[in-house]
Amino acid sequence: MDYYLxxxxxxxxxxxxxxxxxxxxxxxGQVSLGHAAFYGLGAYAAALCSTAGLPFPASVxxxxxxxxxxxxxxxxxxxxxxxxxxxxxxxxxxxVFLGVVRxxxxxxxxxxxxxxxxxxxxxxxxxxxxGAAVGVALLSLHIRRSWMGRAFDAVAQDEDVARxxxxxxxxxxxxxxxxxxxxxxxxxxxxxxxxxxVVPDAFNFVxxxxxxxxxxxxxxxxxxxxxxxxxxxxxxxxxxRFVNDYKLLVYGALLVGVMRFSPRGLAGLVQxxxxxxxx
Amino acid sequence: xxxxxxxxxxxxxxxxxxxxxxxxxxxxxxxRILHVAQATVFTLGAYVGVLTATxxxxxxxxxxxxxxxxxxxxxxxxxxxxxxVLNQPPFVPLVASIGIVIAMEDGFRLIFGPYGKPxxxxxxxxxxYGVGGLNxxxxxxxxxxxxxxxxxxLNVLATRTRVGIAWRATVGDRAMAESxxxxxxxxxxxxxxxxxxxxxxxxxxxxxxxxxxEPGMGxxxxxxxxxxxxxxxxxxxxxxxxxxxxxxxxESFGGVYLGDYMDxxxxxxxxxxxxxxxxxxxxxxxxx
Amino acid sequence: MTILAxxxxxxxxxxxxxxxxxxxxxxxxxxxxxIGPNGAGKTTLLRLLAGVLVPDSGSVxxxxxxxxxxxxxxxxxxxxxxxxxxxxxxxxxxxxENVTVxxxxxxxxxxxxxxxxxxxxxxxxxxxxxxxRFGIADAADxxxxxxxxxxxxxxxxxxxxxxxxxxxxxDEPLAGLNAVEATQLADQISALHAxxxxxxxxxxxxxxxxxxxxxxxxxxxxxLLADGPPDEVMARRxxxxxxxxxxxxxxxxxx
Lengths: 279, 288, 255
What we know:
Shape of chain A: globular
Order of helices and strands of chain C: EEEHEEHEHHHHEHEHEEHHH
Number of strands of chain C: 10
Oligomer: heterotrimer
Shape of chain C: globular
CATH architecture of the domain at 1-71 and 205-255 in chain C: 3-Layer(aba) Sandwich
Largest sheet of chain A: 2 strands, antiparallel
C-alpha cells in the first residue's frame, strides 16, 4: 500500500510540474529548459519556512509565491531575447540557480536542508498532491477555453501579428511564466515536506529535461496529453524495474523518438488518428 | 605571478571551449540547429582516446582514433536525427539533440562504468616548462598548440581551398550554392565531420588534462558551448573564438573571486544572462 | 479634422536615408494613396506611421496624441490598424479563427477578464459577418495554410476591420492579385472609405490607386515630392519623371 501511495504521489507531483511547463511552453510557446529551478525554489523556500516554524499552509504559499515571483522575473528577461536564445537563457537560469544554491551555507550547501518538519501523513500528502495536480489541470483546461488561452495561442503562433491585433504580448508572456513557475513551486513545496529533505541535485538540468520529456511525450499544448505523459513516465521505471537502471537512456531515447516521429507527442497521434484534438 | 597562472589556466580552458564552440557555431551557421549532441562525440573521443592510448601506448594514435571515431558518428547523428526534422520548428531538433546527450551519458555509463577511466598521460607529458616565470605543464602547452593548429588549419581550409569556398557559399545562400552545382548534402556531412573531429579531439585533451574520462564530461562543456556561441554571436566564428577564450579566463578568475557564492559552471551561465540583458544580440551580434 | 500627422520624420538604414524630413497630415475620411517608384521609401514611411519602425527623428501624432514611442498593441487598441504586404495569418488557425481572435482581442486587454471570459460567440459572429462581407465565408473553416492568396488578402482586411479601426494603413493590399481580384479588392477598400473609414495605403498598382484615392502623396528618394488630388498629381511633370526615370518595370507591373 505504501509503495503504491508513494508512486501515486510522485506521479501527481510530476503531473503538476509538467502541466506548469505546458502553460509556459505548450500554451504560450516560450521554450523553458530550466523548469526544475522553480521546482527547487518552491522546495527550498517552503523548507526554510517550515524549519523556521511557520505552519505548513503558510510555507506552501511562500513556496508558490517565491517560485512564481522569480518566474515572472525570468519572464521579463525572456522579453529581451529571441526564440533561439530563450532556450539557452532558461537553461542558464537553471544552472545559475544550482550553482548558487550549492554554495550557500545557509541553504545547507551540497547537503541541502534536512529534517524538514512534516505534519501530515503519507496519505494526506498523496491526497494533497493529487489535489494540486487536479487543480492545475482544471486551471489549464479553463485557460485553454478562455480568452487568456486565445491570447497565449496568438502569442505562441506569431508575436508580431498578435501585437498588431492589440494583444499585449509582453504581459501575456510574463503571466504564462508566472503561472507555470508557480505550479512548479507548488509541487516543490509539497515535495519538501513529503521527502523532509531537499538537496540541490534534485533540481538539476537532467530534472528539467525529465519534466520536458513528460510534457513532450504527452504532447505540448494538450492538458490531458501532458498529464498522461507525466503519469506514464513516472510509472515506467516502476513497472519495468530494469528500466530504472537505464532511466535516462530511455527518457533520452524517447525524446529523440518522439521528436523524430511525432513531435506533437501522444496528443498529436490521437489527433492524427481520430481527427479530434485532445484537450 | 598568481594572476599569470590563473590566466594560463583560463587560456587552456578557453582553447578547449573554442574547439567545442567552433563546431557548434559551424553547425548553427549552416543549419540553424543548436547541436548540443556535440557532447556525445566529445565524450566518445575521450573514451576512444584513453582506450587506444592504454592499448597501444601511443598518444598520437589515440588522438587520430579519437578524431576519426568522433568524425564518423557526427554525420550519422545528422543523417538519422536532424535531417528528418529539418523542416520542423527549431524546438524539435534542439530537444532531440538534448535527448541524445541525456541518453548517451547513460549509455557511456553502462558501457564503460560509472566511475570513469583514469587517463595516464605518460612520462613525456609529465614534464613542465618554465615560461617567463610561469610553470607551464606539457599538457597545457599541448592543448594550446593543438587548438591553435586546428583553428589555423580550419581557416586555411575555409579560405584557400575549393571545399572551403563551396562551404562558405552554402552558408551564405543555400539555393544559390546549389544552382552552382555544390552538393549541399555533402557540405552538411563535411560540416558535422569537422565539428565532431574538433569535439572528439577536445574531449581527449580534456581527458588528458584532468587525468580522467567519465560519462558525463561532455554535457556541461556542450551547454557552456551553447552559452559561448550566443555570446559570440550565433554563426559568428571570430566572435565565438574570442568569447571562448574570454569565458575560460573569466571562469578561471571568477572561480577564485566568486567561488564562495557560486560554483564554476554557474559563472559561465551568469555571464550569458547578464550579457544578453545588456546586448540582446550577443557581444558581437550575428554574422548575418 | 486631422487624424494622423507626422513632422520631420526621418529614418535611415545604415547610412541610407530611407525617409528624410517627411511632413504629412491625413484628415478624417480621406483615402490617401502613397505612391512612388521602387525604393522611394513608401513602405518605410507607412511602417513609421504605423509604429512598426521607430523614427530616428521626428514625431507621429494620432488624433492629437503623440504616439511616436507607443507600443504596437496599444496603437491597435486605440484604433489604428496596419496590414502587411506579405500576408501573415496565424498559421495554426482557420480563416474564421484568425478573424475571431481579432474581433475579441479587446477582451484580452485585462488578463483577469480574459481569464474569466470563455464566451466567444459574439466574436465569432462578428468574424462570420466580416468574412461574408468580403466574400470569403466559404473558406471560413479552412486552415489558413490551405487558402489562396486572394482569400488571405481579404482575410487580412477582415481581421483588420474586426478591430473596429478608425484608421487603416494598408501596405500593398493588391500585390500578387490578378487584375480582376485587384479591382474587386480596390472596390471593397473604396466602399470602406465611403462608410467613413480613413485609409492610408501604399500601392504600386497605379491604375487602381488613382481610381479610389481622394488624395495622392508621391514619394521619391525618401522625400515627399507631391501631395494633392489624383488628377493633379498624376499630371505633374516631375511625378512622371520620377516614375519613368527609375522604373521601366512600373509599366509592366501596372499592366
